[in-house]
# Entry
Amino acid sequence: MAHAQLPPLRLGFIGGALNSAVGYTHYNSSRLDGHFRVDCGCFSRRPEINTETAQTYSIPPERTHASWGALLESETHTLDAIVVLTPTPDHREMVVSALDAGYPVICEKALAVSSDECRDIGEAVSRNRGFLAVTYNYSGYPMVRELRRMIAEGRLGRLQQIHVEIPQEGFLRQAAAPQAWRLKDHAVPTVSLDLGVHAHHLVHFLTGGKAPLEVIGDQATYGQFGDIVDNVYCLAHYEDDLRVQSWFGKTALGNRNGLRIRVYGSLASAEWFQMQPEDLQLNQANGRRSLIDRGADDAGLARQVRYNRFKSGHPSGFIEAFANLYTDIADQLRQHQSGTMTRNDFVYGAQESGEGLRFLEAISRSARTRKWETV
# Structure
């Protein structure tokens, strides 16, 4: 929750216009708990959208910049962080330039289009002793964090299987009009940059960082936008004999966003569905089944004050999950500014992003070779 004694940290947006997929979400969620305010931005290359967004976000004309380069040049020493919300293919140049200019950076996922680009960004963080946080927002849901706690405490026993699926329907819906950058594939398909990074991150997050070792994958094209990949399937071997199955794509009619996580252990299993974010189903070896929410007696993490802006029974959703992550980022950023930064298990940067891209690259190689590929 907000710390009244501390002034909000000052942000500048690169991207994030009103017509973007994530801009208004970041604007609202970053400010929800009082940790940040948006002071300036270059929201769009199109002057009319840049101006309209600035007016909506209450940004004065003199701090509404025509280019991201002008923003970096003009706002030195006036900001606490730059937030990069442009399409993924633009991230590397902008993030590295901001880090080299001395700005801490918060970047929308995916951090980059390849593991090589992630490495370049990581080197920029290191040489500048900089700060970078990547917004994998689904790990901000209280019940996902509750599931992580249960796993860490051994309540599910030894982990055996994790199934993550993120089916969407946008590439088969009538009158669908995806953004142009989403209709070009890179070293990995753009659908993997859009959805696959979440599948990897959620497994990484829930297991405390277990690494993928090898993967076999398949990629398909079912939609109405040429030969770009729009469905991806994979089976992965992780450390400690853990198996992970993932499916993500944009041609599963009937699924607005079907994110579902199922975790199977030797003592119990658990399931979380993003369309019902307040509920976590727990199934134990003795046959007992229970539904846990933020108000449950054994929801030790989710009952914390910071996750209960509304009492249980009044659902907390997507914006609040993003805000939870922004609270963690604010804490890390303040520590970075004081020179005493310690590891926050909820904030991730270039290293974890690079692992995710290597994982997705291995899936793409496997789809071509029809063989198991090492991550």
